[in-house]
Amino acid sequence: MLSMTLEQLRTVSEVGGVTDVTLKGQGGAFLVQISTRNGSDAVLTKARSSEPRRFSNLAAALNVLRIAGITMGRFDASEWDPAAREPVARSSDGRAQALRKAHEAAAYNSWIADEIQAAIDDPRPSTPHDDIMTRMETRVARHKTAAAKRS
């Protein structure tokens, strides 16, 4: 069986190449099976993969078909088992997490901008880089010595 994306289905439907569409129950979801004029059968797949597009919500499947220009078809619920429905991750959960990360990033950006501005506004004279590096090397050496004595 061939695979067909929604865009391909829309195009084939517009030129009259679709002879029949069946919403086929399989487990806890429905698949869209497509029969074409040239006699080949296809299944509706996800846009960026060859994995069949599964609909746990029958209304969502009908809406997708309507968008593709298909208003009549058949259904086969002989292999459909509503108890086997897979839990669907709510898109609002991912959206909430994305918003939380965006707020954290905005807060961090604001904090770092304030820190930089405070350093720029500090009236004390700047310390040369070489002096800072000398102080840090002295501190690191002191800590290494203390750690060696403890071992």
**N-to-C SSE string, H for helix and E for strand:** EHEEEHEHH
* Strand elements, count: 5
Spatial strand arrangement across the major sheet = 1-4-3-2-5
State the distance separating the first and last CA atoms. Answer: 69 Å
- Ranges where pLDDT stays below 50 over 5 or more residues in a row are none
Total helical segments: 4
Which of globular, elongated, flat, extended, rod-shaped describes the shape?
A: elongated
Mean pLDDT: 91
**Helix content range:** 40-55%
**Over all CA atoms, what is the radius of gyration?**
31 Å
Secondary structure topology:
Blueprint: E1 2-4, H1 6-14, E2 18-26, E3 29-36, E4 41-44, H2 58-67, E5 74-76, H3 91-121, H4 129-150
Parallel strand pairs: 1-4, 2-5
Antiparallel strand pairs: 2-3, 3-4
Descriptive account of the structure:
With 151 residues, the chain is of the alpha/beta class. Helix content is 48%, strand content 18%. The protein is built from four helices and five strands, in the order βαβββαβαα. It has helices spanning 6-14, 58-67, 91-121, 129-150; strands at residues 2-4, 18-26, 29-36, 41-44, 74-76. It has a five-stranded mixed β-sheet. A hairpin with a 4-residue loop joins strand 3 and strand 4 (41-44). The longest helix is centred in the C-terminal third of the chain and has 31 residues, at 91-121. The termini are far apart.
